[in-house]
Every structure is written in C-alpha cells, then in structure tokens.
Amino acid sequence: MGPHMHTFALFAMFGALLLIELGRMRWHGKLSFTADDLLWQYGPIVRISPNIVLVNDYQALNSIFSRKDLNTAPKAIRALQVGGHDWTVTYPQNHIARERRLPVMTATTTKNLKYLLPIFEDNITDIVKNLSSLHGTKSEDIFHHLRINTLRNSQVVMGGSGVKLDHSIFPHVVGEYNFLVVWRLCLPEWLFSWRKFGPFSCPPFRVRSSDLLFKLGGDLCKQPETTSDPIDHDDAPTVYRLFTTKDEKNKGVNWTHAGISAEVSGQILVATETTSSALVFIFYELAKSPGLIEKLYQELQAIDGYNNIEISHAPRRLYQGGPALPA
C-alpha cells in the first residue's frame, strides 16, 4: 500500500470513528452537553469536524439566516418528518417555510390568545385538580398530564373550540416518537423499520408513532371541515382556517390533505415538548420551594383580574397535594 493510500485509509478510519462517536452521543443524549462544553471552552464558533461547525454567536447566526440564497436547514432535520411527510421545519426552502409560518404567527397573537384564555384556564384547572386529588398517595407522571393538557390547548388554536381529539394515547405516541427521531438521527431507516413487524409491543409502536402522529393531524383537519358553520365561527382565527382560506390578502397554501395533516401534526408536536419540559421544571421548582410559592401567590393576587381566579391557587395545591420532594 502506497503512502497516499495509507493516509487516505487513516482519514477514512478517523471519519468513521467520529461518526460512531457522534451517533453514540446522540443516542445517549449527551451531544448537546458536549457541544455546550466545547463552546464554553473555545468560544462561540467551534469546528468539530470537516463539515460540522458549532455556532453560538447572535450576529453570525443573524447574518446566516437572513440570507435567502442559502440552504440553512440541516439534512438531519428530515428525522422530524411526520408519517413520511415534510412540514415547516423540514423544508430547507425559505419561501416554502415562510408561507407556512405566517398563519401560525397570526393565530397566536396576544389578542387571539386572550380570546381563548378561558378555555386554557379550564384545561389548566383540570390538570391541577387531577394531580392534587392524589394527595401524595402515589407517584404520578406529570409529563403525561402536561402532554394531554398541551394537546387540549393546541387543538383549540389549530382547529377551534369545537375540536375534540382523542388524547388517550397521545402522551405515549409523543414519547415514542422522540425515541424514533433519535433512531433516525443515528441509524439508517432500513436498520430499524423492520421492527414494526416484531413480536414485542414497544418497538413496533415506536416505529408506528410517526404514522400515529400524522393520523392525529388528519383527524384534527377533518373536524373543522365537518363541524364548521360560517355563522358560528370563533372570533379568533384558527391556524387551520388561515391555512385554507384564500382571498386577495391571503393567498393561502395549495395543500394536499397529507400536507396539511403533516403540518398540523408537526405544529402540535413542537408545542407539546417545549411547553411540557418547561412546565415540569417550573412545577418542580415551585413544589420544592414553599417560600417561592407564597411569593408567586402574593404577586398573582396583586394583579387585576387574578385575585379571584381559582387557578391562582394551583401552585399551593400542587405542593400540598403532591408527594414530598427533596429540598
């Protein structure tokens, strides 16, 4: 073997080992922590391989994403496809993603969300009552409850107050879909897709979770179509209505049923995990800090319109009714 071939073989071996290590770190959820450590140690821009650069600099990111001639979406984001279909975050083309973001941004303005506030408050009251009714007799998966609560809030924003989705398996679907995304990031599709035919229940459900999430979006789209009444529309425009309405001001998107189902599913998905994770952390901090709960309660009491709302007592009930947590 000549010296050039020997050098090439060493580079190939190094590249393969690097990919294996990145895959292992992704699999165990350590990649983001390692990236943070590298950025802390070496600065806001770090090259970790010939084709991978970590960037944590506002001006650099702003310059990159303001460019309309660059494909700024990494190919790995394809792992977030729903039911085999693309939605906003999987489209590298700026003009496609932009027209899909606009209806979501319009439907979630402060004014429109204030209109839906009573529904959100009822949903939150329900979750607090369910958790506090246990009186600490057993442990409870708060993530499970928060995923259901987020779906109940999201379905109103996406399809209107008349939409009622079956949320019985939704928390399980989202949890398994998160694992499926890791599989897609680390492994080729053919290596795990066959597991949906296996004898055990968990791997097939995990592989099917993408299709189940896609079906949820399809079910949500069908309900506004069958229950909509032009005389009885909600005052706040829904994402689905803005997606499908076309006029001189709003050109709309030329959707297929599969396309709009995937889009709705994806929007619900991203709202669920970010919101649930943040609330789990907040509830944990409140539950282990009675003094902080009292300060929050007093602050809420001082705000006009909140002093007589039952939801203001939610942190207290969570602390008094929940299991003891370490200080």
TrEMBL record:
What's in the keyword line of the UniProt record?
Heme, Iron, Metal-binding, Monooxygenase, Oxidoreductase
Q: Which cofactor does it need?
A: heme
What protein name does the entry list?
Cytochrome P450
* Classification of source organism: Eukaryota, Fungi, Dikarya, Ascomycota, Pezizomycotina
PANTHER family referenced in this protein's UniProt entry, alphabetically? CYTOCHROME P450 (PTHR24279)
A Pfam family for this UniProt protein? p450
Q: Name one GO molecular function term.
A: oxidoreductase activity, acting on paired donors, with incorporation or reduction of molecular oxygen
Which family does the UniProt entry place this protein in? Belongs to the cytochrome P450 family.
